[in-house]
Amino acid sequence: MNPTSRRRFIRYGIVSAVVAALGVVSAYSLTGRHESSPSAPRLPPGQYESSTLQVLHVGGVPAINTADWVFEVYGEVKNPLKMNWDQFLKLPKTTDVSDFHCVTGWTKLDNRWEGVRFEEIVKLAHLTAKAKFATIECYGEPFYTTSLPLEGLLRDDVLFAYGLNGEPLAPHHGGPLRLVVPEKYAYKSAKWVRRVKFTERQELGFWESGGYSNTADPWTDDRYG
User: Fold this and answer.
1) What is the pLDDT of residues 119-139, one digit of tens each?
2) Given phi > 0 = left and psi -120 to 50 = alpha, else beta, which region is 59?
3) Which of 26, 52, 91, 218 has the most CB atoms around its CB within 10 Å?
């Protein structure tokens, strides 16, 4: 190879490497995770794989009878909702397989959730133009809440789940109903959901008020505020 050809080859290799790197960065910025190739890692930084969905929560498991259970939606909505258990089960059902990342360091891969997409609730409630965030309020003591921006809740994999791996969702996993937000640390996936309040400004939840990250992005290792 003559010197001129060699210089062109080196320049071409450098440019190709930069373009490839930019492609990976672009894919990460658009998806929030490494999905640029089939060989991309499944585990976010600092996480290890767990064989089970571990049980962690604040306080005890509340005793919730579905005969008395009520689901409410209020705040910046044109159509406030109030449903009993039978009415909620009649909403369009979906199934989604996703990974579950706990801020304490473990990840359970491939959980098969059954339930209702968050988007279905939005459609029924008819949000006002001011609605930008949602606060999730839960049964049990202490009073647990978490909140997220609306755009992050409208992903297809964000569910109000009442089933897990073909079985009704057990109370210690948040049954009868929990929120599932796969792209966030698990404290955003609130257990024992009771109410959803749509707001113009974000309200910090239980853990977020205590110093945990409000964005809770596993793929940037964003654990603490």
Assistant:
1) 999 999 999 999 999 999 999
2) left
3) 218
Q: Which residues share a beta bridge with 180?
A: 159
Q: Where in the chain is the domain with CATH 3.90.420.10?
A: 48-220
- Distance between CA atoms of 217 and 32, rounded to whole angstroms? 8
Which one-letter amino acid corresponds to residue 199? Answer: T
Distance CA 164, CA 69 (A): 19
Among 154, 156, 225, smallest CA distance to 185 is for 225
Cα of 120 vs its chain's centroid, Å = 16
What are 196's strand-pairing partners? 73, 136
Using one digit for the tens of pLDDT, what is the confidence trace for 146-191? 999 999 999 999 999 999 999 999 999 999 999 999 999 999 999 9
β-pair type (178-180, 48-49): unpaired
The strand pairing partners of 167, in sequence order, are 164
pLDDT in tens, 37-51: 566 789 999 999 999
Domain 48-220 has CATH 3.90.420.10: yes
**How many CB atoms are closer than 10 A to CB 166?**
8
- Cα–Cα distance, 128 to 209 (Å, whole number): 27
CB 161 within 8 A of CB 95: no
Give the pTM: 0.82
Nearest to 189 by CA among 126, 132, 79, 111: 111
- φ/ψ of residue 27, rounded to 5: -65, -40
